[in-house]
Amino acid sequence: MTDDIQYETAHRTDGEERRAFRTLERGPGDGPIHPVVVEVVGSLLDVSPGDLDPMFDSLDTEALDALCRADPDARLRVGFVYHGCSVAIRCEGATVHVSASAPSRGSGPDPRQTT
């Protein structure tokens, strides 16, 4: 599944930022979205998703999944921080965009370090 994740680097005035993202087409019977977030963040940080703290320790994953399933015609944006990465989820009908960004190594704190 990680083959579907794409990467880019943005140059900002305060350093570089790495971003990983994945776009999915979802149907009514599809599973929860939070495992996709964990996969994208793990890929960005170059760690196995299983090595990350469980997302439900910092976010109500059931509520997140319900928001992404609520209305197939809705447009929705949700943002939060997970493992030091800025996560954005954008739902546009059946299309869901999941992205995570973090400072490039050497241009700020290492997002893999938890506090």
Automatic annotation (TrEMBL):
Q: Which residues form the Halobacterial output domain?
A: 36-94
The taxonomic lineage of its organism, from the top, reads: Archaea, Methanobacteriati, Methanobacteriota, Stenosarchaea group, Halobacteria
Q: Where is the composition biased (Basic and acidic residues)?
A: 9-28
Q: Which InterPro entries match?
A: HalOD1
* Sequence segments annotated as region (Disordered): 1-33
Organism field: Halalkalicoccus tibetensis
Name of the featured protein: HalOD1 output domain-containing protein
